[in-house]
Amino acid sequence: MPALLALGVLAWLFYALVRVQARSIGGHAPLGEVGWKMLHVASIFVLYSLWSRAWTFVAAGLGASLRWMSLARGAAIVCFAPFVFSSFNVHRTKIGNGTDPLRDQDLAFQTVWFRSQDGLPLHGWWIPAAAPTSRSVVVCHGIGTNSGNFLSGAPFLHRAGFNVLFFDFRGHGDSGGHTTSFGFYEANDVHAACKYLQQQGQSKIALYGFSMGGAAVSLAFDKRFSWDTAFDSNVRAVVLDSTFAAFEPVVDNQLSLLPAWSDEGPGCVFLARNRRVTARHPARERHRPRGAAPSAHHPREGGSTH
């Protein structure tokens, strides 16, 4: 009974924390997300328990005194803490959309679902233009947010005669998954959104990416993500807002407490299965003179770097 009571109190605390986080971005806290976060924390405690026992076992095997045993436990905490920080940074709490285009901007919409290349279900809102057109804009949000945070720009695009597709990246909003890669695997989600539009007969697509969304848009032009052969021909315009010019420094910053097993930082560990990647402005790179240095487009100085 005491164990069940403690579990109930812990669940309530988690729910309260998730609600506070959800309210900060105008979203809602799904009950399932609270259960997932509790499981996440429990798995970390289990891993730490095994890690701590290994340290004390080694110390005991070396005949360490009680004082040295205590130091071994402290060292275990210090060494394990960076992995806890990085785990919460990569496996973030997913905040559901707290509104929709009709409630927020009085725009008619249709809820749509499509899948990324690796099978993750992605949630989106399709806002058709007032008159039939093949011109569409895909809005790609930043890290830790969702589509509902970017609806303020929908009326402007709608009045300009565009169809608009808002969608949630993996591990965000109402889409599947619980892991973010700061734009790397999210490039597949950009392709999936464009593929969905092509299936709806949309042949003139513009991409707007904010922060991490901008990095995902840029990386979508990398040939390793080009599983959609019509992507380059159908994407006619790109806008990158407050994004970052290089990928590895961002990963190094987000995982800064992890040990760097390379002179180039933990970002190289994160990208161990891939060659170095730079998030570049695709339109400028296409027309960059041979031998010129890569450039980045910063529409607004001082913007978010998430």
Q: Could you walk me through the main structural features you see in this protein, from its secondary elements to its overall organization?
A:
There is one protein chain. By secondary structure, this protein is an alpha/beta fold. The protein has 2 domains: 2-90; 101-244 and 279-286, Alpha/Beta hydrolase fold, catalytic domain (Rossmann fold, 3-Layer(aba) Sandwich), CATH 3.40.50.1820. Helix content is 43%, strand content 12%. The protein is built from 11 helices and 6 strands. The protein has helices at residues 2-24, 31-61, 66-90, 101-105, 154-159, 186-199, 212-219, 231-234, 247-254, 267-270, 282-286, and strands spanning 110-115, 121-127, 135-140, 163-167, 204-210, 235-241. The protein has a 6-stranded mixed sheet. α1 crosses α2 and α6 packs across α7. It is elongated, with a radius of gyration of 22 Å. Mean pLDDT is 80; it is low at 261-306.
* CATH class designation of the largest domain: Alpha Beta
Give the termini distance in whole angstroms. 44 Å
Percent of residues in beta strands: 5-15%
Give the CATH H-level superfamily of the largest domain: Alpha/Beta hydrolase fold, catalytic domain
Biggest β-sheet strands, sense, barrel: 6 strands, mixed
Give unreliable regions as ranges.
261-306
Number of strands: 6
Spatial extent as radius of gyration: 22 Å
Taken in chain order, the helices and strands follow as: HHHHEEEHEHEHHEHHH
Class based on secondary structure composition and strand pairing: alpha/beta
CATH architecture of the largest domain: 3-Layer(aba) Sandwich
Average pLDDT metric = 80
